[in-house]
Amino acid sequence: MDIAATLPKVLNEIGDDTAIIDCKRITGGDINSAYYVKSAKRPYFVKVNENIPPLFFKSEAVGLELLQKTNVVKVPKVYYVMEEKSGAYGLLLLEWIEGEKTNQTSMWLGQAVAKLHQCYGQHFGLAHDNYIGRLPQANGLYENWIDYFVNCRLLPQIQLAEQQSKMPIVRRQKLDKLLVSLDRWLPKLCRPSLLHGDLWGGNWIVGDKGIPYLIDPSVFYGHYEFEIAFTELFGGFPPLFYDAYNEIQPLSPEYKERKELYQLYYLLVHLNLFGEAYGFSIDRILQKYVG
Question: Which pairing describes strands 220-222 and 20-26: parallel, antiparallel, or unpaired?
């Protein structure tokens, strides 16, 4: 994609026919090329990819807009999505967000995520599929959280790992044993909370006056503790975040017992994306729960 030739057309589509003052590639992310673009009207953040699967950027845009409609979290405004039907290339034009952390940023982030988790749906899951990183993420609408967690989260990653020869027989046998006993640890009755879905330390940024913004969502409705478990897997969230979160949406006494089961999903994702370096953590969790 010729970004220099494409940008004026894209900006014109959204009513910005002013001159492009600056366009420079920036770092961040391992999937897309990213650009800072400034017209005479405003700055933009642009993602470009010439080898994406179908509806890749559209799924992200839908997720951002769903989060924005809650009015409880901040996300960058979606200005424009351009995507070839086959998914060969695409462009996503977003609001440029820039700012510096304040002493209150982490507290605000915890409060916002807690309020997001109090936005409830009628079913677990989502009416359409989306992506976790560059991997397809199946959805669907379920009445039961454990059924959704097994069928739409764990099983697809297990099957993908098998296809990529990343699933030794013993690991698969232990996973099969775990799948049929999850009701020992996971809640049978819970409400479907709206989740960001991929909330690690790199998927929130700071805007004006230290206000936190969520980016790169993989949204669905699920058990709120699933999201919090992932925030603890790789870090990036200070104690103040959890203190503020718990004041609004307290974690259950059973959270610590089930936390690693929720982290298992994201470890399987990382196994499929990056390889056996994550296998030890998966095997350790399986040993803990099923021996």
Answer: unpaired
What span, in angstroms and rounded, lies between the C-alpha atoms of 51 and 42?
28
116 neighbors 228 (Cβ within 8 angstroms)? no
Enter the pTM of the model: 0.95
Q: Which amino acid type is present at position 249?
A: Q
Distance (Å, rounded) from C-alpha 257 to C-alpha 168? Answer: 26
Q: Where are the beta strands (DSSP E) in the chain?
A: 20-26, 33-39, 43-49, 78-83, 90-95, 124-126, 130-132, 135-137, 140-142, 193-195, 204-206, 212-214, 220-222
- Cα-based torsion angle of the residue sequence 266, 269, 270, 274 in order, rounded to the nearest 10 degrees: 180
Active-site residue, from 198, 208, 216, 283: 198
Each residue's pLDDT tens digit, 56-84: 999 999 999 999 999 999 999 999 999 87
- Count of all residues that appear for the chain in the document: 291
Whether 198 is catalytic = yes
Burial code (b: 16+ CB inside 10 Å, e: under 16) for 90-103 equals: bbbbbbebeeeeee
Q: Which amino acid is at 200?
A: W
What's the rounded Cα separation, in Å, for the pair 136 and 107? 32
